[in-house]
Amino acid sequence: MKRRKYLPIVSCVLFVGCGAATPELQLIEDAAEAMGSLRAVSETTGVVLEGSGRTYRVGQNQTPRADLPYYEIENYRLQLDFANQRWQLRQDRTTTFLTGSPLFGVRQTYGLDGGVAYDEGDGGMVQASDRVAAERWAELYHNPLGIVLLGLDETSTASNLREEDGEQAVDIVAANGTQFTLYVDGETLHPSRVASARYDSMLGDVTYETIFEDYAESGGLGGFQARLTLPRQYTINLGGDTIAEYRVTSDTQAQIGDLSVSAEPASDEVMVEAEEVADGVWHLKGGSHHSALIEFDEFLALIEAPQSEARTLAVIEHARGLQPDKPLQYVVNTHHHFDHSAGIRAAVSEGLTVITHEINQTFFEDLVARQHTIEQDALARNPQPLAIETVVGDDVYELSSGRRTLEISRIVGDRHSDGIVMAYLRRERILFEVDAFSPGASASPFAAALLENIQEKRLRINTIVPLHGPGVATLDDLEEIVEREGR
């Protein structure tokens, strides 16, 4: 239901002679009063949150059902400029888990300037995609002040007042059509959480939710000298998983800088470069994540469908172009981590059978079954059933045709992923692996486990094809890294 500008509503509250608010609007006004006063909240143009916390690496756990690894966050500073629809986050992130490229004390800066999302990189501000911009615009209102201000805006509509588990809930639809659900605590009338729908390329249609807890007084507001009551604890959930937790102080009087930025659009071009490693074996390079193509007598097989749908579809097209007379039938997935499985739905849409370790089977069954209605990806546009074959335990799975056999086995004892596999061409003495050994990486904490597996399986290797890094390597390169870092 449409409403008037919020300042006239304030006049209705402070004085007399105005019509009664709708029940939905009354709840939003009550929430504003509970945070300090309706008038004080209505005149808030921005807020600064500072503190510390944790962020979690979604899709990077040891097994698909294990707890998520996390970063410790310090020097968290989030500036929210409601008046100009801008925000910027700066934080220092320290990893607490093993990785091939440890990021200790890395400063992150990213945000939103109107309709432009950006990330700060080595070369300055880089513009993010339109989808990211839409997500970050919604995040501006995953704050109790932001969502109440949005609910009071004349261009928004509020409807469907209801009670859910002791909380009052109301749906707020912004002028651009984005819907939020505001939940208000039944006793304190403080906003308790905000939820909105979001599309995730891996998870499909999900709920993005921010929970507000532990309300306390914050900084005052200009001439009114009112002290707003705002949450100290923020918990952010995505699709049911907690992805961030922050303990903060809030200040509505803090100086918010000019958050406008000039960001260069990032290139969305996908490059695929094929380098022939041996007869009928290609290293499909491009960007930070690579694939490999292996030709058998009767078919072709890919190793890895990484990074994104766009990359995987480009790799598939390139692979088919290299050997157009043979069908591309298989894709070997090394492990479930999102950066290495982001193209699996695309591969399934193209009719490929997935080969992975049995630990990952239920993960891929769920991945393929997920709903993608907010945006339709390749599999939603061309539904296909999941065909999957698995490596069982520590056994060797053999993919064979003619004289060529690819042996796929688990890297036992790898602390990066319990279900990670490597692939070996015995006759050609070529090993394919990822995230165990990457030439040029700043650290190689998983290389020793890879070498131990090679030795225990008595593999004779001339060439290692890492699916990260600039190119191929040798067994000597691996042994040198392990010796240098100390087994």
Beta percentage is: 35-45%
Task: Give me the Rg, rounded.
Answer: 26 Å
Count of extended strands: 26
End-to-end CA span: 67 Å
CATH topology descriptor of the largest domain: outer membrane lipoprotein receptor (LolB), chain A
- Please state the second-level CATH architecture of the largest domain: Clam
| Secondary structure tally, helices | 12
Number of domains: 2
Helix/strand-derived category reads alpha+beta
Shape: elongated
Low-confidence stretches: 1-19, 220-225
Query: Any idea of the CATH class of the largest domain?
Result: Mainly Beta
Quaternary assembly: single chain
Sheet with the most strands? Answer: 14 strands, mixed
Strand line-up across the major sheet: 7-8-9-10-11-12-13-1-2-3-4-5-6-14
Mean pLDDT metric: 92
Name the helicity range.
10-25%
Structure description:
- The chain has helices at 6-14, 23-34, 38-42, 130-139, 144-152, 309-322, 338-341, 344-349, 361-369, 378-381, 447-456, 475-485, and strands spanning 46-56, 70-81, 86-95, 106-113, 116-121, 124-127, 157-164, 167-173, 179-185, 191-200, 204-221, 226-238, 241-251, 264-265, 273-278, 281-285, 291-295, 300-303, 328-332, 353-357, 388-391, 397-401, 404-410, 421-425, 430-433, 463-466.
- The protein is of the alpha+beta class and 487 residues long.
